[in-house]
Amino acid sequence: MNWINLSEYLVFAVALTATVRPLGSYLAKVFAYEPTCMDRLVAPVERAIIRLIGSAARRPMKWHEYFLAFVWFGVAGTVFVFLILKLQHLLPFYRLVGKEALSTPMTDDLAVNTAISFATTTTWQAYGGETTMSYFSQIVALASQNFLAGAAGLAIGIAFIRGIATDGGGVLGNFWRDVTRAMLWVLLPLSIPGALILVWQGVPMNLHAYTTATTLQGAPQLIAQGPVAALEFIKNLGTNGGGFFNANGAHPYENPTALSNFVEMLAIVMLPAALCYTFGTMTGQRRHGWLLYGVMTLLFAFGLAGVQWAENAGNPALVRAAAPLTFAAGDAAWTGNTEGKEVRFGTAGTTLAVVATSNGATGSTAATPDSLSPLGGGIAFFNMLLGEVTYGGLGTGLISMILAALLAVFVGALMIGRAPAYLGNQIGVAEMKLITAYMLIAGMVILPLTALAVMTAAGGAGLATNGGPHGLTSIAFAYTSSFANNGQSFGGLSADSAFYNYTTSVAMLGGRFLLTLPALALAGTFAQQRRRGITSGSLPTDTGLFAVLLIATVLLVAGLNFLPLLCLGPVVEHIMLWS
Amino acid sequence: MLSSIRAVVVSMVLLTALAGLVYPLLILGLAQAFFPEQADGSLVRRDGKVIGSTLIGQQFDDARYFWGRPSATAPTPYNAAASSGTNLAPSNPQLAKDVAARGAALAKAHGNSVTPIPLDLVTASASGLDPHVTVAAMFYQVDRVAAARGIDPSAVRALVERHIEAPAFGFLGQRRVNVLAMNLALDAY
Asked: Domain ranges in chain B?
């Protein structure tokens, strides 16, 4: 690892850590309805929206009401996106780009898949943006869902925190009001400067037809244009990740410079990281909030080191095939695994993007995931399997981490013979059942779907580009990414078929709603409990020992569920490549 | 029940209007006002005609020009209306075959050079539109371009050195050269 790579990671860590406290305490104020600097600007808008929504936005909700509102909001988003996509040829701006350029047919299964995908913040894309979507679809349907679904995720995260923080009463807040506040106080105000920084760096923002250029060699070159910046920043901030273009975060119009890459990656992790502090503030346990942030950062750093090492090692198959010719080394050259990467990011920027997006439930990769080294891609895969706990999806990442902490508390307390309690909330039989259900859902959705795809002809037909252990990884990666509401894919898998469009939809719905159900139910039972004081009899949750226990729990749960899969895919491919 | 339906419909309509209409139009206005060049795609014009974008690579195979990275876009390389990488796995035999063939062709085009080959010149980019190559990839081609144009190689090398872009703030990204900008400078030389 050279010092330039290391300094990119260190500056990233410092920049992120610097935002955690101000942003985290701001979020705590926003969702405690305390005064903030934004009130004069957006409070009147909130009042107007709440008035129009009516009585439903005024009463505090129990967990099942909150959950139902969340589900209906997702259903409405899905229906809305589906209708716009199916009607896009009749809606504005379709003719501007034209039928010839938008050559991918908008089939029912693709529209269903895309609608579910964007309404669940997965933004899995079985299509290439510039060959499928009109500007109207990109912005009014897809970019707006990036905001709405992201805001709903944040609301769920906040409701979950309230459940733990509340001392009896059993209510988690009001979903409609939380979503509205997440939009007005958080996502929109951050996206305006964010999008402008990206435009400054070169991300287009126009409503022109695709440009026809005549290259220096005299050939015509059709260059896709569009209102890219309006999607680009929220795509990262809302941990969505569906790109405007097929190449997503690797496209020079989506991610023009190493600086834009840095900003976009920071946008992915910023809010989920800040929620650790929000959690600490709302529960009155700041040290524990910082501990969660520290654990996440440590796991993130492991990922960086692993991917960096794997990608720097290069590809021995290329060296063997090119002999007697050799490849350049030295300062001016780029060594390592350069296939499917972009020169402007280098290995460091690419590594940062791989780790941030795979951990952050965001599908916008700055490289081609398929062409990553077996272990580099394997770490991205493993990050998603961990439940995206570092720093995770907006709102949902913190939930995954706290669920792991609950399990760690339970195990730890039993080991030393104490009654398990988390921040004053008792973990009894009912709570443990919900925690266990939450932990088991991932394996119960991902593994059967993978098995189904591997065993059927329709599933096997997707492996048009790569086969062998890598093929298995591509299929498992697809369902994991869908379930984790991440959305990145090994693009060599031909996923625009009825089979993959419908089966990945199942995984996306499972990841969004099946996971939220036990999480909110748990928050509901905690909200009913009176919080007891933390005494010398409780297992301390703000010590280095607990951090170790937490990391072990996170790794163990994912490891027990998925180790065979990881061995048969990435590990076998690595051994084959290097033997 | 009725109040829930109202809440779903009203919140969807209002929040979508905010995020899908008001916000993008605001960004469009601000972007066009403050950064019109970038907002329109950083297009490059020569003699009034659009010849490309500084951010989007284009296909070069003429001996008089510096060449960029292999592009996997279909149906032609550097199709900026359908970005794509190869999606080939590192273990895919096709990748090794393609890279070896590109390496051999590159060496042949450079007077059967045995100089070590810059990897970026034989591996495809993620977008298929990478506008840059490394400094090593530029130096590798200097003698060929100089010979094809009948210019002194040291002058071409000096031109390359003037076009090197440093990492932002010294640590973001790597040292690189924009191929289109370099070739424009060659034409103007």
From this structure: 2-37, 43-188
